Amino acid sequence: MPLFHIAFYRFVALTDADAFADHLRHLTRDLTGSVLVAEEGINGVLAGPAPALDAFEAALTADARFAGMVFRRTACTTPPFARMKVHRKPEIVAVGRGGGEAMAGTAVSPEAWRDLMGRDDVVVLDNRNAFEYRLGHFKGAVDPGVHHFRDFPEYVEAHAAQWKAEGRRVAMYCTGGIRCDKTSGWMAGLGLDVLRLDGGILNYFERLPDAARDWAGECFVFDNRIALDTHLQETGTTLEDVYAGDPADAWRLARARRLDAAG
Prior knowledge:
This protein is of the alpha/beta class. The chain folds into two domains: 3-88, 2-Layer Sandwich (Alpha-Beta Plaits); 106-252, Oxidized Rhodanese, domain 1, CATH 3.40.250. It is 33% helix and 23% strand. It has nine helices and 13 strands. It has helices spanning 17-27, 50-61, 110-116, 130-135, 152-165, 178-189, 200-207, 239-243, 250-262, and strands spanning 3-11, 32-38, 41-48, 72-76, 84-88, 106-108, 122-126, 136-138, 169-173, 194-197, 215-217, 219-220, 227-228. The strands form four sheets. A five-stranded mixed β-sheet has the order 4-1-3-2-5, with helices on one face. A four-stranded parallel β-sheet has the order 6-10-9-7. Strands 8-11 form a two-stranded antiparallel ribbon. Strand 12 and strand 13 form a beta hairpin. The chain is globular, with a radius of gyration of 18 Å.
């Protein structure tokens, strides 16, 4: 039976986060993947046959707090995950800065994003790790050069005053949108005019068949598929291709090898 991958998240107050994590363990018993649960919401990636994913999506969205949630689904050749885990966490995205609500600024459609990228009054900022940028990025985007997502705010703080003085808006993007959604409120609190690519890179690839005209390379994904092209197809990229050449990322390669062997 064909295998599919889904990615989803929602920022919503979960006063019953512990109990909800247990509920998700029941709902995902026939799937593989990972779901993070915190009082601020959920963030998940799952894999399985279409009927099992359909059943999960229906059960989750029956809860009014998740009605209308977007599930981004792609076909898989490689099984993305070896096991299923629901994690109870303090945050579904760890930023390392307090203050500011998620989902601030303006969400920009893929079609409008294409027009933004050519404007002189816009800084196109990659809100991902350096190794992800190295593998692939929007042409002309700025690489903050961070080796962990928690380092991203430091880069923004160092450049915010200059961007504001130049009257430039900050248009940022990430893989599926969640990192941008989480940091947008904090960045708006610095006085920045924030724009974020709705649904992230994966939505851009899905919506625009000619996305390759704006994108250089591949898109890293945090599972066994490793990388996707602009048509959301798996590539032949290996872990060594992703992490080799930068000593700062050697630990990532070692960890990935351990996880692969354990799986």
